[in-house]
Write a structure and sequence with these properties.
397 residues; five-stranded mixed beta sheet; alpha+beta; binds magnesium ion; binds adenosine-5'-triphosphate; 12 helices
Length: 397
């Protein structure tokens, strides 16, 4: 459903199953999502960088993850000069390896880095539109710490930062820090699961206690450990929007990322990895808030705050008036999309509902004469009439 709506509204183009171009409007939404995540990552002292998409076979062999039996989503290619390369499905190994050039002493720790990068995964079924791509944008972060205590402190900070991101994107109330399979390194990892009909995961949640457990680890033992009983947990469909992992010292040992402790002892760096699905997030937001008329963007991620619909007809005076409102809003820093097309009002209204900007402002002959313009809130359908001055003070921050 998300891809259908986004395509119809001109946000994305489907290149092939699981691969979507971001058109100008879609690019704006993704940039809004990225900027929220960027601000929250910067706030916990994590530094932005960008890694390559081409990756070394030798490096992934070191950790046993080049094997297609171990990682079943690899895209691989051949180099003309001989040998194979992998296309990034994750950046854990390359960035751990890179840090060997930057970490040699306990004085170099901790370090936190992140990036927004395309990930390529040869997913067998790409069926949920933007929510599961073969090529998608992820924010991935990596922490490099001296010991478990420092690691845990950052890990907890990252949980708070992630929840701030999801709150700012309007899905905070429906997003749970969820106990999930920890893989080889720890008993649990933590997922951020958002209640969403179109999601692919099933979780058991307790709203009052704020506890959520992925079905993959939902059993008596987990419940007892978390102080809940299985029958007070509600089964819900969810989408995984983020995932954070503790690697312990294992990955450092595997790739050879060591540092000298104060007493000179050679010690493996304690690592963690932290992902947010940026383009999946866009799909989840569409799924959660869309109605029968189209997309409904939360203010924080909408490409434009105002969709100015000019019912100018061929009346030059009305056109001048609407043009004036457009320029005045822009001058005040308001993000405004202006529909000045020569099409029927019904089409314009239907399109503005489909595109989903938080507010529609209508300018017409009648409104110009009366000196008040119609303002419709997309989410609630609430209608208000405002003078030009009222418009400017409502929308200019
Ligand atoms: P999933 O279980 O959904 O396949 P994952 O556990 O393999 O995801 P991670 O490697 O933890 O995913 O990636 C971090 C985040 O990237 C996920 O939490 C999710 O939001 C997003 N993500 C993962 N795979 C995809 C995909 N194929 N398309 C879009 N987003 C994805
Ligand atoms: Mg995951």
């Amino acid at each position: 459903m998300n891809a259908k709506l986004l395509i119809r509204a001109g946000y994305i183009h489907k290149e092939m199953a699981g691969a979507y171009q971001l058109l100008p409007l879609g690019f704006m939404v993704v940039n809004k999502i990225k900027q929220i995540v960027r601000e929250e990552m910067d706030a916990i002292d994590t530094q932005e960088m960008i890694a390559t998409n081409l990756q070394s076979k030798e490096l992934w062999n070191k950790t046993g993850r080049w094997d297609d039996e171990v990682v079943d989503v690899w895209f691989k290619s051949e180099l003309k000069s001989g040998g194979e390369v992998g296309l990034a499905w994750s950046h854990e190994e390359p960035l751990a390896n890179m840090m060997k050039n930057h970490i040699s002493s306990y004085k170099d720790l901790p370090v936190y880095i992140y990036q927004f990068q395309n990930k390529l995964r040869n997913e067998l079924r790409a069926k949920s539109g933007m929510m599961r791509g073969k090529e998608f944008i992820m924010k991935d972060a990596y922490s490099f710490c001296r010991n478990e205590e420092d690691h845990n402190a950052y890990y907890e900070e990252s949980k708070v930062a992630y929840m701030k991101c999801f709150e700012r994107m309007g899905v905070g109330d429906d997003t749970y820090v969820t106990f999930a399979d920890g893989g080889a390194f720890t008993e649990f990892s933590h997922e951020f699961q958002t209640i969403c009909e179109a999601g692919e995961d099933i979780c058991y949640i307790n709203k009052e206690k704020g506890i959520a457990i992925n079905e993959e680890v939902f059993n008596e033992k987990t419940c007892t450990d978390l102080g809940v009983s299985a029958d007070e947990m509600e089964k819900v469909q969810t989408a995984e929007v983020g995932n954070i992992f503790n690697f312990g010292r294992q990955k450092g040992e595997e790739v050879g990322l060591f540092f000298n402790e104060q007493d000179g002892e050679k010690t493996a760096v304690w690592m963690g990895s932290y992902g947010i699905g940026i383009t999946r997030m866009m799909g989840v937001i569409v799924e959660k808030f869309a109605d029968e008329k189209g997309i409904v963007w939360p203010v924080s991620v909408a490409p434009y705050q105002v969709h100015l619909v000019g019912l100018n007809g061929d009346d030059g005076e009305i056109k001048d008036c609407t043009d004036g409102i457009y320029t005045a809003l822009q001058r005040r820093g308001v993000e405004v999309l202006y529909d000045d097309r020569d099409v029927r009002p019904g089409n314009k209204f239907a399109d503005s509902d489909l595109l989903g900007m938080p507010y529609r402002v209508v300018s017409s002959k009648k409104m110009k004469e009366e000196g008040t313009f119609e303002v419709v809130e997309r989410k609630t359908g609430e209608v208000n009439y405002m003078t030009e001055e009222e418009l400017y003070s409502k929308f200019a921050a």
